[in-house]
Every structure is written in structure tokens, then in C-alpha cells.
Amino acid sequence: MGKEDIPRSEVEETEKFISPSNANNNSVLPNPDGSDDNQSPKNNNNLLNESSSSPVYNHNHVRRKSSTHSILESAHVQLQIFVADAKEELKELKQFKKNGKEKTIRTGWKRYIGIILAIMSSMVFALGVLIVKSLPQYHPYSVSFWRFQGVLLPTLPMVFYYRFVKKEPIFDSICPATAPGHLKTIILLFFRGVTGASAVTLQFYSLQFISMADSSVIAFSTPVFVSLASHVFLGEKSGFVPVISGVITLLGVGVITRPPLFTGESEFDRETLIGAGLALGCMVLATATFLLLRYLRQLHFSLITVIFGFWGSFQSLALSASISKFQPPEGVEHWMMAIGLASVTFIGQTCITLAFKFEQAGTVSLCRTCDVLFAYLWQFVFLGVVPDAYSLVGGVIVILGVLVIAFRKFLSELPPDHRYRQRFWILLK
Fold first, then answer.
1. Locate the EamA domain: which residues (predicted)?
2. Which helix (H) or strand (E) holds 241?
3. Residue 258 burial (C-beta neighbours within 10 Å; 0-12, 13-18, 19+)
4. Rounded Cα gap, residues 174 and 185, in angstroms
5. Domain limits of the chain?
6. For the chain, which residues score pLDDT lower than 50?
7. How far, in Å, are 9, 28, 146, 151, 206 from residue 341 at the CA level?
8. Cβ atoms of 97 and 103 closer than 8 Å
């Protein structure tokens, strides 16, 4: 061959032979003369000794060796990239621990199961509001009692299961009542029941004066004010973004009340103002409920739920009896609607609980904005109510304020170096 270049076919054959797995295990390259690839080191040494007598072959062998060395360097770089990518993939696919339990990263549609459950909870909760809106002849106290059966009755066997089957100490935080800190916990549980049950009743009251979409929009503004109240009462970190979101949300509520400034009327519409005030009261009580739940987050969820269901049932029944307004469902259709109300309450509560198990709180909060969308959809499909401009504009403004807070929560749960967190850093201020 003399001083001619190495044939390209030999170089390509050598490149095909080199792979990341061979680059690290000292594999022997194919010999230039086409001899056996699996020669022992001894045979290779003999070949070099024999070839030393031939200057031409020696020269070509050095050139081939130099080319092989260059190919090996290139393969080594490719191997480093391959190993880095493999480590990254393994890091994403391996199991990790969360809250002391093994959790596996899901693939395909299973990655979105938490989001699906959150949207399902929004859909069925809006159906519950639709059922209440469809029963105006019943007092809100009576309808509230039906709803709380969907909380109380399914929870009783759950408490029995966790306490007597799984032997979990769910009552140790309140029994005995004389133990240090137990009385405070009992009082907080009592107020959680009062605020939660009263919030439900006020929303049902508001449905007698305003549309279900307007009521849902105002009641759904709770996350904005929870963020502000947590800073005031719990000392949690806040910023100017929650304050701005709160102002935006209140502006949207103001538009829903249809002020005379917009409508050209001489005064507010009385029924609209009463309905908006009741829905706003629902929002305030729901905010207080969320604050109390943060105080009680160490308690077993079944204990909190069963006490809420029991107190809600007792409160609505007592208030109904006090004004002689308790009404059982009349006829098969109304009985089915009452059972449906309790059922969708249980299904919605179960879906939202599981959604928090599979997904982060910020993501779930973003999905819960669908509550309002389903409220508009159901009232149009089943009641034939088309929202006017004030309802739509006010709803969009409120949803905007809630979305900002929900997306802020989503960003706060991301790693500090995540690209979304760096891109939308202003929302974390």
C-alpha cells in the first residue's frame, strides 16, 4: 500500500465495530489483515514482532493505529453522552419516596390521573349545585341535610375500618378530652364543622336569588382569600401578587352584582345584591374552613370528615326544626334527586381526595377552576339559562384572579432551577 491513505471501507468497518459497550471493556479491534478478531494479546504481540521487519507494513500499521486512536476518542465522547442520558432517564423512571410511601412514576395516560380526578370532582360538584337549583320549593336547610348524608353515611364505615381493622389511632388526638391539647383540637373541630356547614347553607340560599353560575363564581374565589388570610392569621409567606389577585377578584364580584353604574338603573337589583351577599358570605366561611383545616392537618382525614358530616347534619336538621321548615322529598323524582345530591357529594369528595394523592396541590387548584365552567355549562344545558354580559365578564375576572393564585402555587412546588419557575418568577413575588 505504500504511503497511500487507508481505504475508507476499512475505516467504516472499524467505526461499526466500536460501540459504547466495547469502548469500556478493552475489546480488541479487528486486525488490518482480516485475521481473527478474537486473537489473544500474545498473538497480537507476535504479529507486531513479525511486522517489524517490514518497514512498509510498519508505516501503514502506525497510520492505522493513529486512525483507530482517533476513532476511539470519538467513541469515548459519544459514550459519555450516552451514559449521561441514561442516568437522566433512570433518575426519572426510578421509584422515589413521598410521605413515607413508595410511589412509582406513571407513564401514558396514568400520568394525568390526578388531573382527571380533579376535573371529575369539579363536574360532579357542579351537578350537585344544579340539583339544588332545580329544587327551589325546598328550604335550603332541608336540602343541606340531604347533602350532608353524602358526607356522613359513607364515612362511618371508613372510621370503623381504620379504627378496628387497621388499628389506626384516629381518636387519640381527642380522647381523652382532658389530655393536654385535646380540648383545643375538639374546639377547632367544632368550629370547622360550623363554618363548613354554614358555608354550604349560604351557597344554597344564594341559589334562590342568583344563577348557579354567579353563585359558583363568587364562592369559588375562596383560594385567593385563603392565600391572604394565611398570611394574616398563620404567618405564611405572601407577596404583592396575592394582594393584586384579591383586588381583581373583588372587582369581578362587583361586576356580577350589576351595579347601577353599569346597568344605568337608579339602584342595585335587590335580589341580585342579596344573592351576591350570601355567596360572598359562603366564600368568607369557606376561607375560615380552609384555615382551620390547616391547623388540623395532622389529624386523620376520616375523623375530620365524619365530624363535619355529623355536625352538618345536626345543624341543618336543628335549624329546619326551629323554623318548622324541614321537608322530606316528595315523590319518586325528588327522592332520586335527593339521593343523587348525596351521591355526587360523596363522589366529588372522593375524587378530590384522590386527586391530592396523585397530584400536587397547585395543579389540583388549577384544575378546580373547571367548577365555574361546568356551572355555566350545566345551567345552559339543563336550565336553558344563557349568561348575560355582566355574568360572563365578572366570571372571567374572578377566574383570572383565581388562576393567578393557583399558578403561583404550582410554580412554588417546582424545583428552584425549573424553567417555568425562572420564566414566571414575577408571580412568586
1. 113-257, 274-406
2. helix 240-256
3. buried
4. 7
5. 8-92, 113-428
6. 1-6, 8-11, 13-57, 93-103
7. 77, 75, 7, 11, 17
8. yes
Calculate the CA 319 to chain-centre distance.
36
Alpha carbon distance 395, 213 (integer Å):
8
The three cell numbers of residue 149 are: 348524608
Q: 374 and 123 in contact (C-beta within 8 Å)?
A: yes
Residue type, 60: N
Residue 178 vs residues 60, 181, 188: alpha-carbon distances, Å: 95, 8, 15
Q: 3-state DSSP call for residue 144?
A: helix
**Set of cell numbers at residue 270:** 335587590
pLDDT digits (tens, 9 = 90+) for 48-96: 444 444 444 455 555 555 666 666 666 666 666 656 655 555 555 444 4
Q: Which amino acid is at 8?
A: R
Contact 28, 38 (CB under 8 A): yes
The amino acid occupying position 232 is V
User: What nine digits make up the cell of 93?
Assistant: 423512571
Query: What is the torsional sign of CA 248, 254, 258, 263?
Result: negative
